[in-house]
Amino acid sequence: LFIDATPRLPVLFNWTPSLPYRVALLVEDAGELHRGDYVVFAFAGAAQADYPGLRGQPFFKIVRGLPGDAVTVQGRVVAINGVPVGVAKTHAHDRRPLAPIAPTVIPPGYFYVQGTSPDSFDSRYAASGLVRADQVIGRAVPLF
Predict the structure, then answer these.
(1) By the 8 A CB rule, do 43 and 49 touch?
(2) Rounded-to-integer distance, Cα 80 and Cα 65, Å
(3) Model confidence pLDDT, tens digit, residues 92-133
(4) CATH numbers and ranges of domains, the chain
(5) Is 64 in contact with 113 (CB distance < 8 Å)?
(6) Pairing label, strands 136-142, 23-27
(7) What letter would DSSP give residue 133?
(8) Closest of 78, 54, 76, 77 to residue 65, by C-alpha
(9) pTM of the shown model
(10) Cα–Cα distance measured from residue 122 to residue 134, given in angstroms and rounded to the nearest whole number
(11) Structural element, H or E, at residue 38
């Protein structure tokens, strides 16, 4: 009988350019999330109808908006509480049109998340949308 008592570190690998980090540790008990936290969540946005492979996929993003924050859109510039956080692109890589998120106040139990790359698929887009707290798998601690 062999028992491996070695604890396993939940290591994440980011294969997209959405964030500058490629490797991170997953802290599954996310606790209370704050602006600037890195989170991993299971994708559940409207885009899963057009891209079924996205359903439940883990995404790695930064929390930019919290419950009670105002999301506004002017043209394609998205702002949180009046501070611009990014520009929504007009089309995805496959040339499908991308609509920006609708202006809203982030409701309780939801977060606005975003990557650092202009090509990141995140809350700037209606098809991705806000992330529900129950979608959050944990916080990510970037390593490199």
Answers:
(1) no
(2) 6
(3) 888 999 999 999 999 999 999 999 999 999 999 999 999 999
(4) 11-142 (2.10.109.10)
(5) yes
(6) antiparallel
(7) G
(8) 78
(9) 0.85
(10) 17
(11) strand 38-42
